[in-house]
Design goal:
Layout (H helix, E strand, L loop, with lengths): L2 H21 L6 H19 L3 H5 L2 E8 L5 E3 H14 L6 E13 L2 E11 L1 E2 L5 E2 L2 E12 L2 E11 L11
Length: 168
C-alpha cells in the first residue's frame, strides 16, 4: 500500500476511535459523584435557608442561571441579585427537595447533572400558599480549584399531568 493510503487509513481509524470515545457516556468516579452531590446539597441547603449569597457561591464567577420564566441571570452577583427579592417575597417560606436522576461526566472536570425537584410553600400574588410545584434542573458543573461549581443551570417547571378520564 502506498504511504499516503496508510496515513489516510490511520487518520480515519483515529477519528473513528475518537468519535466513539466522545459519544460514549462517561460515568463520573465515586469521588466526583460525591463532590457533585455535596454541591447539590449545598445549593439545596442555601435555597431552603433563603440565603441568596450562599446560593450564588454555588456558581462559578461567570455562571448562567435560567429560571422557569426564562429570565437569565449571569455571574454570581447577578444570581445573588436575582434571589434577594424572591427570598424576601414569594419564596420566603419555600422549601425544595430533589431527586437526583443522572450525573454524566463530559471530561474529568465537566459534568452534567439532571434532577427532579418539588418546591413547596411558595406564596402567590395575593399571599396564599401555592400548591407544590414540580420541576427539572439541568446543570453543567465544573471543577475549579478542586471544588465542583455550577456553570450553567436551567430550571424548568413541569406541567401538571392532565386528569385521567375513566374508561367507559
Amino acid at each position: 500500500m502506498p504511504r499516503i493510503h496508510l496515513t489516510a487509513l490511520f487518520a480515519l481509524l483515529a477519528a473513528t476511535f475518537l468519535a466513539v470515545g466522545l459519544s460514549t457516556p462517561r460515568h463520573a468516579s465515586a469521588a466526583d459523584d460525591a463532590g457533585i452531590k455535596t454541591l447539590i446539597d449545598q445549593f439545596t441547603s442555601a435555597f431552603n435557608g433563603h440565603d441568596s449569597h450562599a446560593v450564588a457561591m454555588c456558581f462559578t464567577d461567570d455562571a448562567d442561571f435560567i429560571n422557569v420564566q426564562q429570565a437569565d441571570s449571569r455571574g454570581r452577583k447577578g444570581i445573588e441579585e436575582h434571589f434577594v427579592p424572591l427570598f424576601s417575597g414569594r419564596l420566603k417560606n419555600a422549601h425544595r427537595t430533589y431527586t437526583l436522576k443522572n450525573i454524566r461526566s463530559i471530561t474529568p472536570d465537566v459534568a452534567t447533572v439532571t434532577m427532579d425537584y418539588v418546591l413547596d410553600d411558595t406564596t402567590g400574588a395575593n399571599g396564599e400558599t401555592v400548591p407544590p410545584r414540580k420541576g427539572l434542573y439541568d446543570w453543567t458543573v465544573v471543577r475549579q480549584n478542586g471544588k465542583w461549581l455550577i456553570s450553567v443551570a436551567h430550571e424548568s417547571e413541569l406541567a401538571a399531568a392532565p386528569a385521567m378520564v375513566p374508561a367507559r
